[in-house]
Amino acid sequence: QETRGQFYVGIDVGSGSVRAALVDGVGTVVAHADQPIQVWEPQAEHYEQSSADIWAACCSVTKKVVCGVDPAQIRGVGFDATCSLVVLDKQFQPLAVNREVMNHRNVIMWMDHRAVSQVEHINATQHRVLSYVGGAMSVEMQPPKLLWLKENLPESWEKAGCFFDLPDFLSWKATGVTARSLCTVVCKWTYTSDRGWDDTFWKMIGLEDLVKDKYEKIGNHVLSPGEAVGKGLTAGAARDLGLPAGIAVGASLIDAHAGGLGVIGADVRGHNLPCENQPITSRLAMICGTSSCHMGVSETPIFVPGVWGPYFSAMVPGLWLNEGGQSATGKLIDHVVRGHVAFPELQSKAAASAHSIYTYLNSHLELIKKSLPVGFLTVDLHVWPDFHGNRSPLTDLTLKGMVVGLTLSRGLDELALIYLATIQAIALGTRHILETMEAAGHGINTLFLCGGLSKNPLFVQMHADITGKPVVLSKEVESVLVGAAILGACASGDFASIQEAMAKMGKIGRVVQPNHEHKRFYDKKYQVFLKLVEHQREYRSIMDS
């Protein structure tokens, strides 16, 4: 209880909004605020943001959550953000990442896929650093984006003084220190904790310019997540954020990793879970929002085909991280539901019953299931969920979505069924990732879910039933914000380590057990699931021949 009177601020920059939370020493979110940020899409697959707009939003939400709190009680601040690329000139001013030369639009978003030909060129080198990203780099990582800038915007490339991953840009704005987090440089930039930057990689892909000034532009001072950055908040940043100058700032995390940190270390005693009294390596943290990330840690490095990592100390200091992912999950469910012809009917009925559309759909499924379990309604409706390509475990951006079992019916029942089949497909994709990780040497027995989709009971139950593993939900739905606050708590010195802060501040809410009686049905669904992609690849080879 000694830390209850002390508070930490967590600031989370997501894709469409910035959120802040005031969190106490036992991990309770005391206050929370959010504000939208702008996204520009000047052409297909190009997504841009403004670092000035993002920082302004950070300041306004932080001022809201600390309003009325005694500043002496606020001990530290931590940031997490999407792994977007921020470009600044030699005076640290925003620099255009677009042909329109709009300098305020100086951020290439994580989900931007402009650098396809660059990532193909990088993967063709088969350089050894690629073995740490599952064998092939993603178009969403930073080297292909840097190469795209050099090839397409030579003026910006010449003027550039600094390339930041967004989480590191935020800690720089807060402290004036250009240190980078091990999380960002290891996960998205090919840095390795034992060897640092690999000169031969940057030279081989055509970015030798970054090597010559000792990597000044991409960072040559690297800190562990939660390590104190510089002398804490500068006077200017403190004024902007409404916080006391000099309070500790922890080295940042990528947003998904902050979610992982917020849930994976929770104390589970007394819940009869298979991971109790087992090392943290028996747990998988799933952060489910627009896209989903699957975070597993191990004592020794495990190389998993099609899964990113092993990344040393990228989430939990001292442990190796493997990171699976699905590029479109919340976004896919939204896409399928909103695009359906019965969506207007759903909208008005949900509004009339004062429920969200998803709560309404879940109760509608209960209504039409008759005597069967809800999940069995999709016996002849199957979805392959890679509408935005496959991140893990197949690393194939060219894969497309599939639906088998369409009819001429177009009512609410059909909308509810395709919604269910889509959720099941996402859970089957998680099983596909889990089985790949287990085959490579992971021993995972419990899932820890957080993020927006973890609020949907159908999504949670399907993940338990389809993987056959219990699902733990955190007490605070905003685990990402708790994770960010843990970084500030760690930097403040109030906890001896990240592990101690995780156990004290990560609280579990509910446990959802799998229904083992449904195992046979979902094993068959999984067989069909794997057949779908096999067929898609066959169709492609026929058309390509």
Automatic annotation (TrEMBL):
InterPro entries linked to this entry: ATPase_NBD, Carb_kinase_FGGY, FGGY_C, FGGY_N, FGGY_RbtK-like
Single GO cellular component term: cytoplasm
Residue span(s) of domain Carbohydrate kinase FGGY N-terminal: 8-262
A Gene Ontology biological process term: pentose metabolic process
Molecular function via GO: D-ribulokinase activity
SUPFAM superfamilies: Actin-like ATPase domain
Keywords per UniProt: Kinase, Transferase
Carbohydrate kinase FGGY C-terminal domain segment(s): 284-491
Gene3D superfamilies in alphabetical order: 1.20.58.2240, 3.30.420.40
Flavoprotein found in the keyword field: no
Top-level lineage group: Eukaryota
Family according to the record: Belongs to the FGGY kinase family.
Protein name: FGGY carbohydrate kinase domain-containing protein
Species in which this protein is naturally found: Pitta sordida
